[in-house]
Structures are given as C-alpha cells and as structure tokens.
Specification:
8-stranded mixed β-sheet; disordered C terminus; alpha+beta
C-alpha cells in the first residue's frame, strides 16, 4: 500500500461520544505505526463532558456529578468538551515529520494562533501555561487569593497530547460558541485566576466551518518536516 504524505482530513457532522473517539484514535495510531493508514486530522464535537489528563488534581473537579468525567492518557489537567467547541484530534507521525515532542506541543499552539489570526483574533502564549490566551482589556483586572492583581485574560483554546511509538494523538480544542458556564464545574487546566472565552464571547460570528477552514489553511505552514537532534527523534 502506498500512503499519502499528506494527512487525511475528516469532519464529523454528529456529536461523537468520548469513548468512541478514544477507541478510534487508538486504532488509527496503531495503523499509522504499522504503515497501513495515513495520518489523520479529525474535526468533531463531543457531548458535554469533562476529561482528566495525567496531571489532573481531584480538587479541581468542582461538580463531578454535572457531566460524565473521563480519565485519559493525554497530558494536562481537567478540561471541558461540548457542543460549540471545535475539537481537532491530530494523529501525526512525529518520526516521519522529524518533530520532537516538546516542539510538537509548541507547533500545536502555533497552529491555534495562526488559525485564530485568520479569524482576526490575536491569540497568545503565556509562559508556564499550555494553551492559547486572549487579552481582555475590556474586563477589570483579576485579584488572586494572595492579593496579586492580574490583567484580565481568558483562555480560548486548550491542548493535550499523548504519544505512542512516536505517533502523536489527542490534540486541540477551540471555543467557538460553547456554553461557557459549563467550564464552571472544573478549574480549567488547573488555572483559577483567569477566565475562559470563545469566539462568540469576543463578538465574532465565526462558525465551526470557518474554524475548520482556518485550521486547514494554516496546517502546512506549521507542521512541515524539520531536522532536529537525533536524540529527540530516533531513526
């Protein structure tokens, strides 16, 4: 079988249950590893649910009875998935693309930032925090429990990664128009001193299709193969 050097793109027109998504990713990762299937970027929505990454703290699950909670092998802490949020699961062969794991995480952030820029939103990184943030000068500064005052900023996109035999899976989520009150059942990604936003909350009328188009338009510019140290990507 001759496989394409470009990933397959798949968009679901239904809400995908989380266990089904995990099983599908496991199967696809195995097939990519075996050389029997191409890489895949899978665009979908989930029904309302919380997921716990490998660093999740039980105290950060504030209302465990609100939605189903799923433990997952991805990195990170608690996050929310639900309608109005674009989830992009990227199953990519890091060895073939010659991207080390830490650089791959930065690539996911850059992919989000460039995609948001296509929609006229300035997404930014923050030192020590995974994900993408939006400054909110329209909101008052936030005061932490210790009295520290922070300029208002909200998280618009999250990411979590798992790597098996150098094939990456899980991926990113961008808040398009979800019910932001659903995030109140957790401390999102373990960060309590900042809020969560969406494209709709920022006043944009972008649709899931608009976000999908932006993700496709920016993918190749971010994920081109690149040489890295042999220790990071074994032969």
């Amino acid at each position: 079988m001759v496989l394409s050097t470009e990933p397959e793109w798949r968009t679901e027109d239904r809400s995908v249950p989380y266990p089904e998504a995990l099983a599908a990713m496991d199967a696809r990762v195995a097939a990519i590893r075996a050389g029997t299937a191409p890489e895949l970027v899978w665009l979908l929505e989930h029904p309302p649910l919380y997921t716990a990454g490998t660093s999740a703290k039980r105290a950060d699950l504030l209302t465990p009875e609100r939605f189903p909670v799923y433990a997952t092998g991805r990195g990170g802490q608690y996050t929310y998935h639900g309608p109005g949020q674009r989830v992009a699961y990227a199953m990519l062969d890091l060895r073939r693309r010659r991207i080390g794991v830490h650089r791959y995480v930065r690539h996911l952030e850059e992919w989000i930032i460039r995609s948001l820029a296509e929609l006229n939103v300035r997404g930014e990184r923050r030192e020590g925090r995974i994900g993408v943030w939006v400054a909110r000068p329209d909101k008052p500064p936030r005061r932490a429990p210790d009295g520290t005052i922070y300029p208002a900023e909200d998280k618009i996109a999250a990411l979590g990664v798992r790597v098996r035999h150098w094939v990456a899976f899980h991926g990113i989520s961008i808040n398009v128009d979800p019910d932001l009150s659903h995030f109140e059942g957790i401390v999102p990604c373990g960060i309590a001193e900042h809020g969560v936003t969406s494209l709709a909350d920022l006043g944009l009328t972008a649709s899931l299709d608009d976000v999908d188009a932006a993700l496709r338009a920016t993918f190749d510019s971010v994920f081109a193969a690149e040489p890295v140290e042999a220790a990071l990507v074994p032969a």
